[in-house]
Structures are given as C-alpha cells and as structure tokens.
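Category: protein sequence paired with discrete backbone structure
Discipline: computational structural biology
Format: plain text, a pair of labelled lines
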Amino acid sequence: MPSALPDGEPVPDDGALPESALAGAADRPLGFYLHVPYCATRCGYCDFNTYTATELRGTGGVLASRDNYAETLADEIRLARKVLGDDQRPVRTVFVGGGTPTLLDAGDLVRMLAAVRDEFGLAQDAEVTTEANPESVDPRYLAALREGGFNRISFGMQSARQHVLKVLDRTHTPGRPEACVEEARAAGFEHVNLDLIYGTPGESDDDWRASLDAVLGAGPDHVSAYALIVEEGTQLARRIRRGEVPMTDDDVHADRYLIADEVLSGAGFEWYEVSNWATSEAGRCLHNELYWRGADWWGAGPGAHSHVGGVRWWNVKHPGAYAGALAAGRSPGAGREVLSEEDRRVERILLELRLREGVPLSLLREEGLAAARRALSDGLLQEGPYEEGRAVLTLQGRLLADAVVRDLVD
C-alpha cells in the first residue's frame, strides 16, 4: 500500500456511504484488508505506509502503540458494521498486510480476525491470509495463527541470494523463507505463498534462477514475482542517484520475467495474473482477485483503501491520527471519490486485462477495439479468446501489459 494518498472529497464523520454504494451489495463478494503499519526496520525500496518504533517515538504517544493496535483496528471494524448497515454478506476473504503483521503477537492477529467474524461472519470457505516476515515467526507462532482461523500465509522471500537481500535491506537469512514453508505446512496451513522481487541492482540471471530453484524446492502452491520499482523518496532511490548501485533497465526486467514464467510453468505453476502463479485454482489468492475484479472490500488501518459499490475512500496515514479519530468516535477516512460509470469501465479494463481470463471486448470503445485488433496482429493477444469475445494477453503481451492496457483504454 503506497504511502502517498490522493486528493478527494471529505469523508463524513460517521463514514456514511451514498445509498447507491449499498444498492445490490448482496450480489457482490465482500472482503476485508487489515493493515498493520509497523516494521522493525525500513527496507530501502519500500514506499508503503509503514513505521518503525523510532519513527513513531514522540509522534503519536500511546495512540500509536503496537500494544493496543488490535483493539484500535477492531474499532474500525465495528464502524464498518454500522456503515454497511443490514448487509448480510458473510466475509469471503480477510487479508492482513503491512508493514510486518507478524511483529504483533499471534493473539493480536487472531483478535483482529475475530472482530471481523463477530461483526460480519465469515463464509464457510473464507480465505484468511496474513503476510509474514520469515524472521518474525516460529512453529509455535504459526500454530497459533492456524488455530485462530488463518488458512493462508504469504512469506516475503524476495531473493535467495544474500548480496541481493543486502541491497534491498532485507534482514532475513537466506534459507529461512524456505524453512518457513515447511513450518507452515506442519502447522496445517493449506496455502502458502512466497513473494519474490526481480531486477534488484547487482542481481544476475544466475541469482534469479537460484531464487526460483529455492522456491520450487520449498514447495509453496503460490508464487508472486514483481519487478523492482524504485520509488522516489526511498533509500534505494537515493543510493542509485548517488551512483552507489546501478539502475536495472526494462530489458533486464523482461528477461527475468521470461525466466520466471519458464521455470514456474515447467514446475506445474500456471499464471493467473501477470505477476502471480499458482499450482491450482484453489491456490489462487482470492482476496487479490476481489481487487482485480472490482468487488467490495473494506480496508481497515492507517492509510488503508476501501471500495464499496463504486465509492473508494482512504484513511489518514499516521497511526496516531488514525487511532485518535476512532477514539473520538469519528471515521478515520481522509478522503473519498465516487466513481462514474466511465471510471468503473476503465478500471475494469486496467485490472481485468492482467488476469488469465482477460477482459470482454464488449467493454472497449471504437478506438479500443481498433487497438485490440492491432495487439492481436502484433501477437500481444491470444487468437482463440479473441474470437470468443475476450482480450487475453499472450506471454509477449504480459511483458507489455501496461502499454496494451493504455491502448485499449484510449
């Protein structure tokens, strides 16, 4: 979750939504994202809304403390119950992200999940995920999460090479994420993801292949692989600007992506979103699919974003300001926007084209249809789905996904 927030209209103190946002809610899946903004240290590439203990010292007092964060977050979940009113939908997915959620006690994460369950109920087959830093969990912690209702876990691995982790300022030991997969399986987790980053300055093709081989040896059923994006204002951006480390170019990113798809596909993984692969339908991240398909989700926590029925809003960023608003009985919302039908059409194209199922050609305007025909001729869209009325990216199209999307939207 990037740290910068957009502008928008004010959010009412009670968080109330327009009636139009709640119309037809029963027909849409509902998920919850729970943001934990704490980190032990700040990774050099990270631009997320996270805070170390040093960064919070003196800025938020007791309100910004990790010790009472679970209860503070539960206050927003109770606010969500009031705002959504008589909504009878059980929650389909819960995703705890950060930051480093596992800096909190396992019991705190379980209490946050219990607040969602108590206020809304969980679907019988609900997907419940937490992100985890490999160095912040052990078998006892994982067992407590599993007993408390979590059934999916995502470990931040990034790389198997120490020198690559050092550039990223990652603190875990190579080999620890792989061990975490085994520990999570032993604790009873049904689905396990490993997150990778490619294109780090100083990373070679051999380094990247070694990371992929380590992932396959660990045996997760889901892998996310993202190209490194150097965000302005980060420590890594400053190091590149000073010439301490080189910038990786787009051609290298493309080569690494092709290696990833080759290795993962050869091991039984299938891509279902440009940056995500799973060994089965059950292994796909349902929570992220809510985002990509424009469903409803409530994001609780500092800086978290939400979307319900075409209304999108975001919370204040700082943990102290967030907790203070809730303690005063106010919504922590910082701003919101009501999406027009055209906004929602464009967002569907932007997001659904990234999926294996693609986007219906019926969503495209005349210029977008012409662009789709060109993309088909250039080998960027698959012929079979196109004949059936859908735009689905080829492997080459995935490499150029952002450019294809821009053309289809125009």
Remarks:
- The chain has 17 helices and 14 strands.
- Residues 22 and 309 are 6 Å apart (CA to CA).
- The mean pLDDT is 91.
